[in-house]
Amino acid sequence: xxxxxxxxxxxxxxxxxxxxxxxNSPALESVLGLVERVAPTDATVLLEGETGTGKELIxxxxxxxxxxxxxxxxxxxxAAIPFDLLESELFGHERGAFTGxxxxxxxxxEMADKGTLFLDEVGEIPLALQSKLLRVLQEQxxxxxxxxxxxxxDVRLVAxxxxxxxxxVKRGEFRSDLYYRLNVFPIKLPPxxxxxxxxPELVQHFVEIYNRRMGKQxxxxxxxxxxxxxxxxxxxxxxxxxxxxxxxxxxSDGTVLSPPLGDLKLSAGTESPAAMTLEDAERDHIxxxxxQARWVVAGPSGxxxxxxxxxxxxxxxxxxxxxxxxxxxxxxx
Length: 333
Description:
41% of the residues lie in helices and 11% in strands. The protein has 14 helices and nine strands. It has two domains: 26-191, P-loop containing nucleotide triphosphate hydrolases (Rossmann fold); 195-321, Helicase, Ruva Protein, domain 3. By secondary structure, it is of the alpha/beta class.
């Protein structure tokens, strides 16, 4: 009988899971505990973490369990807007305020009135605009471009960054007063490598999503592949994992996921642990498990049981990956 992780479709409730955070690792539970504490308040939240760690999902969770749920939830990626247009995106403009302003525009702060505004990549806001952002955070008021009329709003701000704002302050690239105003309640999101226990559930979640989208019937991930997934460093975090699973589903036939292992090579010359391929990660994980099991393969405490695979499968993977105990025989069960 084949081994591996089997999937049971989640039905209609699964669609709601797409907007939720997947996993129950201590690292994620710690973050969710902070979310539960800060969400009922109107405090500004600063989400810090590597790219792809799910900052937007956390921001939406803060909004959804706050008293502002049901009110507007507006988001803006500050890095995706040209500098000369960012002020207009945030605060709006009047007709004729600048060349090309052929109509009045409502900015994101007005759109988020009585609700939540999520500013992603807040470290990309230019210094010239930071003072105006500071004012609206402190006074909850601003003027549109080309207008002298003051608009008052009631907006809860959640900001996110993958940059070190404190270091930017030291270099004069970010206003210290704005940093302290944003840093009222910081939440650091863990990278995926710090919550490896969540990887199998995330894999299942993404396989289910792409099964539905592509009309596939993938039901199982081989145990050796799941073992490799949990060993790999995932430098791009959840976003990298999601994209890789999507590609794997596209390339898979039948009911078993067949991931393209070679696609996970990073740039040549990198010396960090993240430079390994998925195959390297699998080799490393199997080798460590064999060492922990004192090179016992079979039996309830053997490496095969620890890895969740059949003894014959483990022998096959060892042969394929070139794993052997030089000068010593495998211990009997």
